[in-house]
Amino acid sequence: MLLGAITTAIPWPVRAELAWNFPAPATPLALDTLQVHNKFMVITLAIFAVVFAIMIYSIFTHRKSRGVEPAKFTGPGTAAQVFWTTVPFVIFAGIDFILMGIPAFHSVQMMQDTRTDADMVIKITGSQWKWQYEYPDQGIKFVSTLATPQAQIANREKKDEHYLLEVDNPLVLPVGKKVRILLTSTDVIHTWWVPQFGVKRDAIPGFIRETWALIERPGIYRGQCAELCGRGHGFMPVVVQAVSEPDYRQWLAQKKAGQAAQAASAGHVWSRGDLMKHGEELYEKICAACHQASGQGVPGAFPALAGSKIVNGPMLDAKGLLVKDGHLDRVMNGKPATAMQAFKNTLSDVDIAGVVTFERNSFGNHMGDMVQPSQVKTLR
Amino acid sequence: MTTADVALEHGYSGHRGVTRWLFTTNHKDIGTMYLVFSLAMFFVGGAMIMLVRAELFQPGLQIMQPELFNQLIGVHALVMIFMALMPAATGFANWMIPLMIGAPDMALPRLNNWSFWLLPPAALLLLMPFALALFGIGSGAIGTGWTFYAPLSVQDGMGIDFAIFAIHLLGISSVMGSINIIVTIFNLRAPGMTFMKLPLFAWGWLITAFMLVAVIPVLAGAVTMLLADRHFGTHFFSAAGGGDPILFQHLFWFFGHPEVYIVLFPVWGVTPHILSAFARKPIYGYRAQVYAFWVIGVLSVVVWGHHIMTTGMPTGALLYFMYSTMAISLPLSVLFFCWIATIWRGAMTFEAPMLFALGMIVLFGIGGLTGLVLADAAADAQYHHSYFVVAHFHYTLFAGGIMGVMAGVYYWLPKMTGHMYSEKLAQWHFWLTAVAFNLTFMPQFFLGLAGMPRRIPDYALQFSEFNMISSIGAFVLGASQLLFLYVVVKCIRGGPPAPAKVWEGAQGLEWTLPSPPPYHTFQVQPRVE
Predict the structure, then answer these.
(1) What CATH architecture is B28-511?
(2) Chain A: closest CA distance from residue B439 (Å)
(3) What is the pTM of this model?
């Protein structure tokens, strides 16, 4: 109450609703979690109130200044006292294993049941610092990254309403369907978290983890990565757009058409200008987080691309195969045990060709050469 | 009850100046060095988190980049746990255990000197990468949070290597210190002091020492495996090479969860002494508290999995870790019951140690009860890695740990220095600390529930208000500790002389000695009847 009064009185830079509890649940799991949480909070507050009421009573009554003579007892003496010292213990055991233990048991069962009656499967791959969403049944996959401009983060521009909780390509899911979610990662451990779904599960490199969501009403649900995954940890939002079944079908059709067009364009011969343009867009979205917009990198952490031996070295040998640790090899296969990941599974042929061409001809690099998407395709 | 021959006084070892402190084997000198080191590191760790709270004052990146932010939060935690809280407890142990059990010194005095002198190099190793980065060497300190989970810690910069060696040194120091405490308590008790007459502070430390010996080697093993993964081509934590990234978390938390109690047991050992002294009433349920310590100690090493419930454990494992974690609330409720029964029908006065002890009980109660809620594996999915957890463990480790240490400092400072501290300033220190602490961490519970992840340098706009309140609270909390420093330094430099029995209701052998106690304490061992 007091906090509420203070926060309304002060002219904050940005006004938003103060939240005192979980956000409105959108799935059965989130609803269950909220109910369990509320119940536990009431129980613990009651314990707190009772215990500290006793303590505060004692503090006010049993003071030396009131001239009380201190008692001498050091433990329960009579049978009645033994009884009254065991009572709190028994109450606590009952609260732990019955009052809280039984609902908690059912919540856990529910949370873990990822497969029963699942309508569809989504595969989510975390990497520094983006999420890749894949619809295995539909043959669609795309990468989702932070859409907030750097200028807002650096306080040069006014921050939008969904500052840091907005992405370029949200995950689109139908409402009313039980979605089984498979999680993995390409580099370090990330955690996929959407508070309104009651879902938080780690994405672990080399392992598959599962969770599930059954979204009950359309809307846009926002969350963030919850496991410290390096410098971009705070900039790895999760946005899920829940739509009706027909809208979902329509979105699928559009996405498939777009993806087919892009695959077809990989076969074309691209001009360097077009590749550069495409590459620049991707560079800003994906590479600039580490190598910086200037291509200078971060000394000691992320190597510079400007003047780099790798970028300014050969990519392909005489037979047209990848030069090991050459520029194209690095982009496609990454460098193990570093933040430089293999992009061949997350980027399309056009994307890789664009980024490589862009990097070789920017930041003061003047290689003058280019890679065609068709070459990337054959090198996979 | 006790007889202590304190008339004879031994001279110093012959060393003067710096060498006195470098070569000292005297338990009081070493205890003092531990406490001074701890206080210094408390301010180092505090200064770091002031920078972090300044960055989090408003959304957007204002004063630092995310790399530095990650380094500051990780090093803050490592410094506070390993270099502020643990050395403070060890400092008390060195000073007080020999006095309380009627021993002339610690059993292994040269080992004792070593245990302390490993700490400053460890601190240097941990903090040096910050300075090296200024000269363009490396990318700064460990930037993975204090848990340094693999595989992030496999790919991070050389700050990790420095931290690994720092942890090795800290671990060796802790294990040696623990062995010393175990041997001292087992062998040097005054005649007549059976284990069931041992002061609770000594009991708390004895169990802490056993736990340290049990779990520190596991941490040492884990960081050594990490070092091998980083530099020697092994794949303990890499699935690509047949390893398991989650193995690191199991090993880490097998150490990390008991560590919570390692930090808290010495404090819970001091608490009943203080409550009893200022309620002028004997400790209630001595045996029950000793057994509760043992039960918590044993349970603490079998519940580590509740820290990693979102990694995708089997349902059976989730249920096991959930129920075993909830079970810890039972022995804890015994401790709380005994603390409250100790003050019940006493004749209380409220000097600074008592205020801090009572404040510790109330605020640690919030930490404990939120811990009970966190145990639920399904609800934990919502709390885990959010600010709810940050608030929870600061209520246990700051309120339960640091405020308990402060209670101990005020309780024993007159005994150690021979001077009374300024009661008025100490009371100010308590109230400022208690209010600012709640202002800092209470909003973080709500931030966590609303969905703010921990360890992010920048946040969505809906979290602005609570972060601002929390930062203001943190600045006041930080500034109030300067008052603590002032009170302590003032007390060391002088003040009204303290009598042997500083507090009217205090019980125990240490109060039979003059304040400060002579350099060599018991020339003739006292007898306990």
Answers:
(1) Up-down Bundle (1.20)
(2) 10
(3) 0.90
